[in-house]
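Appendix B. Chain record.
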Amino acid sequence: MNMKKTLLIFIVALLLFACNKPSGQLVGVGANGSFKEAAPYGMVFIKKGTFVMGANDQSAIGGINDRPINVTVDAFWMDETEITNDEYKQFVNWVRDSIALRALVMGGRDEFRIVKRNQTDDLPPEIAPLNWKAKIPWNSQDEEVQDILSFMYYDGNDILNTKKEFNPGALQYRYEWLNYDQAAAPQNKYDVNTGAYPANATVRVDTSYIDEAGVIRHETITRKLKSRRDLISSKIVNVYPDTVMWIRDFQYAYNDPRMRMYFSHQGYAQYPVVGVTWEQAQAFCRWRTDYYNASHKVKAQDYRLPTEAEWEYAARGGRQMALYPWGGNYVRDNKGCYMANFKPLPGNYSDDTGSTTMKVGSFAPNDFGLFDMAGNVAEWTSSANRESSNTLVYDMNPSFQYNAKNSDPDVLKQKVVRGGSWKDIAYYLQCGTKTYEYQYESRPYIGFRCVRSYNGDL
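Structure tokens predicted for this chain:
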């Protein structure tokens, strides 16, 4: 009897609910607006807000600073710390495994591919879904498997090793992106009345390929704009960090014993990854986005590098005129302890307890809960570098962007770097100080962290 009463109440409730939605009226498709985005692992939520963007102090090198401007930034998620060696290694290992699995499938080993039920025509091996649950036989005694995977290792004649280490040159990641700058060009405006682009519309996009010698080639091509597919650029990137930049950037210094194992040794797992170019950081963001979306029904905004404005807003921690991320005007606390990992005095790197890089989170976070927004390693942003960019950007979510093409001159490939590093004096640790580096360069003092736009309004 109780069951019948429960069923009756449920039916009545459904009828009442249905009656509240009048037939033939605009009622939407069912979304009630109560969606709340789950917090991404390892990220801090930064509420939207307004702040004064720009340098708080005159340039230490006599440069021309951007004039301060009042801007508003939307809410976003930001990594609590810089990306660590251990986290970046997850990307490197994924690329390694995906290349190995694809090679095995291409070599006719069907146990490493997924064949869907009732699939009459198997997909070609180039695009067949990979079986990620299959264990890759790195140490297999099968000669066929050894031959298929041989390109993943150093060549047997290489003096460095003989099939004990993976060949970094084989770890290549291909990704694509939509050139919104080309789509936004006035001459390429899509005509909603005709459903087509202008007859003379053309776009400049990047493409990459591997030549017969196995070398990655980057080109910029111009093609007619007929569909959105024509707006897509592609790039192939070697993802392994530059492991010799410690020696190259600091000649006449004996950094070899420690730094040649900086990325590979587990002792440095929680240190910030360095030796990563801006282009490699971009590839990491694309992989991280796809990796997340593959495991979630509700897709998220893309992981990306922060804009210059987002980075500075996050570094200030809600303090309008903060000189440093911790809010004070000095690099020591009231006990005389340094607040970040930097270069306090010429030749004196260790007074702040670190000589080069340190484990992420070794110092207290700022008021937003973000670690290492000053010192340790400087950080890539997505913004292009220009001294007077603040006079050009909009005051809502300002971002001076330029997607430099492969054929563009180097001066257009400068990207803003923020935060200062273990080798920098205190001036570069200030929230409003910016420097730059070329997007294809890797340095032992530049790392990065990701952000993700927030789906909602807070």
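Further analysis of this model is presented in Appendix C.
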